[in-house]
Amino acid sequence: MNNLRPYPVYLGIKGAFALFFMLWATVASVYRIEVVELDPLRLVLLGTALEVAVLIFEVPTGVLADTYGRRRSVITGFLLMGSGFALEGAIPTFAAVLAAQAIWGVGYTFISGALEAWIADEAPERDLGRVYLRGEQADYIGSLIGVFGSVLLAQFFFLNVPLLTGGLLTIALGAALFVVMPERRFRPSPRQGRSSLQQVRETARGGVRLVRSRPVLLILLAVAVFSGMSDEGFDRLYAKHFLDGLGLPSLGTLEPVVWFGIINAGTLILSYLAAEVVGRRLNVGDTAVAARLLLVLNALTIVGMLAFALAGSFALALAAFWAASLTRTLSEPLYLTWLNEGLDPSVRATVISMGSQSGALGEASAGPVIGAVGNLAGVRAALTVAAIILSPALLLYVRAIRHRDSEGANPPGSKGAE
User: Fold this and answer.
1) Separation of CA 143 from chain center
2) Is residue 355 pLDDT above 60, yes or no?
3) Is the Cα torsion angle 64, 8, 414, 406 positive or negative in sign?
4) What percent of the chain has pLDDT over 70?
5) CA-to-CA distance for 413 and 418, rounded, in angstroms?
6) How many Å apart are CA 404 and CA 157, to the nearest integer?
7) pLDDT recorded at residue 417
8) What's the CATH superfamily of 6-181+204-407?
9) Which of 35, 150, 269, 344 is buried most, with the most CB atoms less than 10 Å from its CB?
10) CA distance readout (Å), 384 to 234, 319, 324, 346, 377
């Protein structure tokens, strides 16, 4: 095993994958609309295929990460995700893109929870809230580079070239982690005579027991369901709203994909700056601070999404899109910080995976409905529905804050609890 320190490796993984992911993601929506010629329903069904894969595999892969090691899980995930990206760029048909979404969805489940659990174990001396926030900032920097690279490749070659490039580089990242990713502190639960399958089952049961013993965790998983419902419609249809509903201002001879590079770049720059301000001004490692900030950010997200859906001009829609995207990205590390509070390391990846699985459940259940609304009543109506669906999360956050305050500093099921 190499002697590299975990924290720089974590930031490197976050930044590198964000770059490769944005090579694919920046043009993926335009590719699907202009090359594969998908309507709103089929655009959302792609997300449904992805989320069904996540729903099925999320917790099992989290359990495997807790049982056999987070490093193996992360490496497997990058290899699968890269294969999915490359497949979509190689074959421009609905069936191929649908299969690609399912493949990268399975790959995502191997990384989700495992990477966060890995750094929490390998760097216990660091403030976890700040670690996740710095990871998001590394993500923003890598993503910004990826946006510009994607636009250049699409402008001078073909729309599928960034997808293929992002996929192949993600596969290369997975292979490189065999050499550079350390794992020194992983301690699987004692087997006590159990077989491998019995050990996997016991780890899963331990995660479920912990969640059931803590009302705050149950509420946070419910929040993830509503967030998933809302995210699915917004993420799948925003590009079509810009292209067909609002129309993109002319950029001379440049392709429309350049506008999406500008849109994504603006989101990333604003998110990086906002994360820097939040990290300096607020103690984001304090879950009390994270909890109240999450409530405010989700309220602002709803306002931004509604403004984007109802905007009558491109300029207003762009400002609203940036505002909603900013609040959503800032919420992610804060949610992880709160979810991690008091978790037993032996089931950490399992519980984090439950959060992702809850989001996948929301996306898979609401996706086809929002897509059908888009086909029948238009993209503007579908985006409005996506914004309104998020509103119950506000009530859940209020309830979770009250439970947390009543539990005090040592939540039930944590190591510090009596």
Assistant:
1) 13
2) yes
3) negative
4) 79
5) 9
6) 53
7) 40
8) MFS general substrate transporter like domains (1.20.1250.20)
9) 150
10) 9, 16, 13, 41, 11
pTM value surpassing 0.85: no
Q: How far apart are CA 82 and CA 364, in angstroms?
A: 22
**Residue 327 CB partners (closer than 8 Å, separation 6+):** 297, 298, 300, 301, 304
- Do 38 and 32 touch, CB atoms closer than 8 A? yes
Q: Are 171 and 103 spatial neighbours (Cβ–Cβ below 8 Å)?
A: no
H-helix or E-strand containing 20? helix 6-34
Taking alpha carbons only, the member of 110, 325, 298, 299 closest to residue 238 is: 325
Tokens at residue 361, please?
């459940």
Helix, strand, or coil here: 396?
Answer: helix
Mean pLDDT of the chain: 78
Q: Which two tokens stand for residue 241?
A: 């709203």
Is residue 173 predicted with pLDDT exceeding 80? Answer: yes
DSSP-assigned letters across all residues of 231-249: HHHHHHHHHHIIIIII-PP
- Asked whether 112 and 58 are in contact (CB, 8 A), the reply is yes
Task: Report residue 37 as tokens.
Answer: 């010629």
Report the largest interatomic distance among the alpha carbons of the chain, rounded to a whole angstrom.
70
- Residue 117's nearest CA partner among 188, 43, 202 is 188
Query: Which candidate, 110, 47, 105, places its Cα nearest to that of 76?
Result: 110
Check: CB of residue 138 under 8 Å from CB of residue 9.
no
Euclidean distance between the first and final Cα of the chain, in Å?
Answer: 38
Count of beta carbons in the 10 Å neighbourhood of residue 142: 23
Is 171:375 a contact under the CB 8 Å cutoff? no
What is the CA 225 to chain-centroid distance, rounded? 13
Residue 332, Cβ neighbours under 10 Å: how many? 17
Which residue type is seen at 226?
Answer: F
b/e code 271-303 from CB counts within 10 Å (16+ = b): bbeebeebbeebebbebebbbbbbbebbbbbbe
Angle at 412 between CA 410 and CA 418, to 5 degrees: 65
Residue 342, Ramachandran bin (φ over 0: left; ψ between -120 and 50: alpha; else beta): left
Tokens of 321: 């899109």
Q: CA nearest 151: which of 246, 34, 255?
A: 255
